[in-house]
Amino acid sequence: MKSLILLLTIHLTAICSYAQNFSNEFGRVTNDEMTMTSYPKDNGADAIIIYDIGRSYFSYDYDKGFEVIFERKMKIKILKKSGFSWAEFSIPLYQENYQLERLFDVKCTTYNLENNRLSKTVLDNKTIYEEKSTGNWVYKKLAMPDVKEGSVIEISYCINSPYLFNLHDWQFQHTIPTVYSEYTVKITPFYEYVYILQGTNKFDVLNKSIESNNGSHPGPEDYKNVVYQFGIKDVSAFKDESYITSINDYIMQIDFQLTQIHRLDGTKKEIISTWPKLIDDLLKHQDFGKYVNSSEKSAKDLLNIPELTSKPKISQLEEIVNFVKNNYKWNGYNSYIAEKNLRTFQKDKSGNSANINLFLAGLLRAAGLKAYPVIISTRNHGKIASDYPFAHYFNYTIVMVEIDDKIFVTDATEPLCPYHTIPPKCINDKGLIIKKDSQDWLTLSNGEFSAIEEKIVLKINEKADTINCGVSINSTGYDAFDLKSDYNNDTEKLEKKYLDNHFLQIDSLKTMNYEDPLKPYIISFNAKYPLESIDNKLYISPFLSEVMTSNPLKQQNRQYPVDMVYPQRRIYNATILIPENYKIESLPQNHTINNDLFTMGYQATKINNKTIVVRGVYATNKAVYSSEEYGKIRFFFNELIEKFNAKIVLSKN
User: Fold this and answer.
1) CA 272 vs CA 47, 126, 281: distances in Å
2) CB distance 190 to 267 below 8 Å
3) How far is CA 197 from CA 88, 176, 202, 403, in A?
4) Of 117, 91, 144, which Cα lies nearest the Cα of 29?
5) Angle in degrees, 0-180, between the axes of helices 313-327 and 353-366, rounded to the nearest 10
6) Are 278 and 415 in contact (CB under 8 A)?
7) d(CA 601, CA 76)
8) Which site from 211, 362, 363, 379 is most exposed, i.e. has the minimal number of CB atoms within 10 Å?
């Protein structure tokens, strides 16, 4: 827990120390806000947050007890059409046992300057709609009316929550600049929280004050609320989102967690004080540990246990994982707790990720295998802070199996994944093994290369200004899984993928091994590609547009790791048939890079007067590169792009 010792006495009611005159008074816009066309501190910004101010406090009802009220007001300037998405809002509400947080007092206004007159358009709250999401979340969605380039939008709303553990977190940073962000939390002494600060270690505003209760709540009349105020000015946009787990792992934010409840009778309740206690609670949980035990007992009615146990253990693992994959379907919802009881799950043949994998763990145990659930956080959910034992960090369950001192990690939600592999979304730092009398973490990483190998034959049709191509693409590992998942073996979608990548025409597209996750996924087709011809010279890109053409690492420097999920290898083999009456004028020079971080090889060879063979290979030798290695890997990508996109020049005899 960060200690709030340094107390500042800075109070801001308006932001006026900038070149522009901005106001954080709700319902008031300034001339500078309306007329500005760019933000000097970030000229490329498509929108800016002028202010984002939130407040959380406790309210007491004699029938319901304590509730948490969250208030937020926000003003955004839309600078470009690409910033229109910032005029759409999705407000999350938590629900459990049919009790939903309540959204109220929503006020939304769009301001425009038309013919030097200020116009206001107020949102009709009847247009707000509800969307159910995975797990325990419902989203209220709205779109601001009459949004244009130059609009200023304001939104304010309140949320009433009976869930005291769900004291709202606060994000100070977004993907657009924020002029001022402030969060105030008023905490009653009946509840204790810790906070976790990420992305910054200082505030422009940091106040702590004591506020009297004045007898408005139960308990001693003189009990005091503690009020914390956090504020940051000039928060830069979080821009580089390439090769990261989740933006939530890196942006400036503060996260509050309930640790203890003090009851009116003087007793207190600890809220998950240690990891062993969390593990013990899960083992006793009806929809976790007891669900696994029930699944184990049900295995005799589903599997031929005597026949299974006569086989090698690795074969048992494969057969049971495939049995679950072939007979039960993941419903798309992530959770580390089963949402359906076992009877309903077996009847429906579908359930969330915990239903599937806790059931799998039980079946594996029934066959005598050492199988343990592992609770994790998926990549888009963020990393786990292992210093703080809170269950909300987790949103998924996978299974660890020990066979002859070797560890296998599996997941039965994805039929396209091999039986001994977890999906890429699950490769996120570490997971907690749920095992009695143990507190062990499982590292979630994959050191095996996934690869794509392309073979391309190019025959030049000078009269038609095209290149006739024969292309074969062989993918393995997670590269194969990604291709299968993205396109579902739909040949029309695959054709569009390559047509969008500058091919002129696709013919005879075929695939192989879609349903077998243990074999390479193969795509082959014939195609036409544009021919570049200038002054009796032909300029040929041997790998066409199948290689990387721009560096995905845009920033000069980076403060967080480059997470590529898994090591990747790319192999390109091109055979160019030289047309009659042409000769080779220039070939790119061969080039090699070979070190612990990156491997690259490029070789262009003239076989005879009729054929050129070009081979390009590169590999990212690590799944995750540190921020200190960022400059090197960015340099390697630049070298790769320059060499693999170099052209072969043929000139007419």
Assistant:
1) 41, 41, 9
2) no
3) 27, 20, 10, 41
4) 117
5) 140
6) no
7) 49
8) 211
- 10-residue mean pLDDT profile of the chain (653 residues): values are 30 41 92 94 95 93 84 97 96 83 95 93 95 80 96 97 86 96 92 87 91 59 81 91 87 89 79 85 96 96 93 96 97 93 96 97 96 96 84 92 96 96 95 95 92 96 89 97 96 95 94 96 96 91 94 89 95 95 93 96 92 97 95 96 95 87
Q: Which residues of 80-110 are buried (b: 16+ CB within 10 A; e: fewer)?
A: eeebbebbebebebbeeeeeebebeebebbb
Longest dimension (CA), the chain: 100
| SS3 category, 606 | strand
The answer to whether 39 and 177 have CB atoms below 8 angstroms apart is yes
Whole-model pTM: value is: 0.87
Measuring CA to CA, which residue among 197, 195, 156 is closest to residue 173? 197
Q: How does 49-63 read in b/e, with b if 16+ C-beta sit within 10 Å?
A: bbbbbbbbbbeeeee
Q: How far apart are CA 159 and CA 497, in angstroms?
A: 44
Q: Where are the beta strands (DSSP E) in 79-168?
A: 88-96, 99-100, 102-114, 117-122, 129-132, 137-143, 152-161
Question: Which tokens in the block code for residue 466?
Answer: 């095209």
The position carrying tokens 């009615």 is 301
